[in-house]
Amino acid sequence: MLLSDTVLLVTGSTTGIGEAIARRAVAEGAQVMIHGRDEARARAVAGDLGAAARYVVADLLDPAAPQQIVAATVDAFGRIDGLVNNAALTTRASLETADLTVFERLVAVNLRAPMFLIQAALPHFRRQGGGTVLNIGSVNALGGEPNLLVYSMTKGGLMTMTRNLAAAHATEHIRINQINVGWTLTENERQVKQEEGLPEGWEHRLPPAYAPFGRIFEPEEVAAHAVFWLSAAAGPVNGAVFELEQFPMVGRNPDKAV
What we know:
Elements: E1 7-10, H1 16-27, E2 31-36, H2 39-49, E3 53-57, H3 65-77, E4 82-85, H4 100-128, E5 131-138, H5 149-169, E6 174-181, H6 187-195, H7 219-230, E7 241-244
Parallel strand pairs: 1-2, 1-4, 2-3, 4-5, 5-6, 6-7
Helix pairs in contact: 1-7, 3-4, 4-5
């Protein structure tokens, strides 16, 4: 198994991609700290995963949360080997509709929290002789949709942080990588798209320009990639930003007739 004898903290792991990563990690031999804001949901996921999982409830809008979450992980398992910065807010906002509250909330959860979670884990990684961080980004980091302005900015910042910290801590055997995830069919995405006006079942009627393979990603497929980057199978690869999409994000010029 890829993650035997590994302790992971996965933020935002009570639903969607984070939950899929946690479940796949346990299947690959890891012990996992489940994190979320909904205690009932966190308890349910951890309970379903059995002895390999614990849970912690914390709101990443709280500046104290990163230290608390990492401390809870170490208290539960005795150490922390890997951190998955998955939790994120995806609030829609364009330049015209964004306000200070939206901006500050997205920056706090999507950018501030990941940095301070890494900061909190760093002393533990050093004592153990290394560690692994996987930041869950978005292809929107490369530009993004107009109504995802603030979200895209935070993911662009996360990408810069990944590269900066990877270079800064490589000699300590701390690997920090990022996967920029493309369009994925989470529970939240299905609901949001219907709220935005798409009909029920929209995920089965996607234009080839957006889904050349006739569908978008499932969370479990993203989880399979995440587990690889967290494992020793990724070797010493560090500072990588891997785009997880059905087409190249840079330089693509799709057929206008399709």
